[in-house]
Amino acid sequence: MAKRTWLITGVAGFVGNNMALHYLQQGDTVVGLDNFYSGSKENLPANTNFHFYELDICSDMLEGIFQDHSITHILHLAAVVSVPICEERPEFARKTNIEGLENIFSVISKKAIKQFIYASSSAVYGAAKQLPISEDVELKPISVYGQTKVENEKSAEAFCNEASIPCIGLRFFNLFGGNPAIKNDYAAVMPIWVNAIKNDQAAVIYGKGDATRDFCYIDNVANAMDCIVSHDLTGNHVFNIGTQQETTLKNLFEMLCDVCEKHPEPEYKPWRDTDILHSCADISKAKNLLGYQPKINVEQGIKKWLI
Ligand SMILES: NC(=O)c1ccc[n+]([C@@H]2O[C@H](COP(=O)([O-])OP(=O)(O)OC[C@H]3O[C@@H](n4cnc5c(N)ncnc54)[C@H](O)[C@@H]3O)[C@@H](O)[C@H]2O)c1
């Protein structure tokens, strides 16, 4: 099979780093873009088939990347990901998440891109009435972050109709894996807890610990991506990418404690209104259309991640 040339935006972040390594391992070329807003230089792969541009996705210099490389596939991940930061700085979040994607569309419209894949989020659903959540329920995001992802999906649909480039939005549920080191106060809950458990510090659980999430190990994302790339999808699509396995926060905390072989008491704090109480993906669409099947459940993922 002809090797692909990927453009991965947000390549210095958690998902970007893992997907870059995945495709480099398959012999593809990866062109990465990041401005290190939340990503870090240590996440950039050292590989002769990896080329890096330190650039903002809103920059008017994006065009240069397409002049330098014959990009065949795009994986757009760059975004302001933290829900609290999006609430604190909505204009900044909208500029990065919404205008950033539109800026990419403005430069790729005339290029020979086979697939445009981008990160949406389970946050588009808001407080779902019924679990597991399927793609066709009404989108009612309760956070600025979720709203920006809904806008992304609308732009992708319009762009796909106009440019006839297949657009595939991935509504990721709670992903974990990769480097467990914490980069900032707004890191995802799992690395924060692991750090607290290992260092005998207080781990905070918001609410009573009965909130649930679909925690999805990063290798399942690589698996989903492979399914997408091997299918000649046309048109515009969105897929839930999760495991369809619901885990309470309390249960997750206990699993992390078991693997770390330490059992501190968590500190409970009041629930935050921009957080979703229950979330779990219905993955039937990705299963039926793409043959996606998550191979690693939350418990196996935690062991692979931390042991
Ligand atoms: N990790 C999850 O559980 C999860 C869940 C749902 C959706 N997502 C989505 O997946 C994508 C990747 O998430 P992640 O967990 O890897 O987050 P991350 O913060 O680790 O990575 C995001 C990357 O984007 C870069 N970035 C931010 N603003 C930029 C800009 N203006 N220009 C260039 N680069 C910029 C950051 O520096 C960072 O490297 C995001 O779009 C996120 O919304 C992630």
Specify the number of helices: 10
The largest sheet is: 7 strands, parallel
Level of helix content? Answer: 25-40%
| CATH level 1 name of the largest domain | Alpha Beta
Strand content: 15-25%
- What is the chains' assembly state? single chain
Structural summary, described in words:
By secondary structure, the protein is an alpha/beta fold. It has 2 domains: 213 residues, 3-Layer(aba) Sandwich (Rossmann fold), CATH 3.40.50.720; 75 residues, UDP-galactose 4-epimerase, domain 1 (Alpha-Beta Complex). It is built from 10 helices and 13 strands. It has a 7-stranded parallel β-sheet with strand order 3-2-1-4-5-6-11, sandwiched between helices. A two-stranded parallel sheet has the order 7-10. A two-stranded parallel sheet has the order 8-13. α5 links the parallel β5 and β6. α8 runs parallel beside α10. The longest helix has 20 residues. The two termini are 35 Å apart. 42% of the residues are buried. The protein binds nicotinamide-adenine-dinucleotide.
Fold topology:
Layout: E1 5-9, H1 14-25, E2 29-34, E3 50-54, H2 63-68, E4 73-76, H3 83-88, H4 90-108, E5 115-121, H5 144-163, E6 167-172, E7 174-176, H6 189-198, E8 204-206, E9 212-213, E10 215-217, H7 218-229, E11 236-241, E12 247-248, H8 249-260, E13 267-269, H9 284-290, H10 298-306
This protein binds nicotinamide-adenine-dinucleotide.
Nicotinamide-adenine-dinucleotide (NAD) binds at residues 10, 12-16, 33-39, 56-58, 77-81, 96, 100, 119, 121, 172, 174-175.
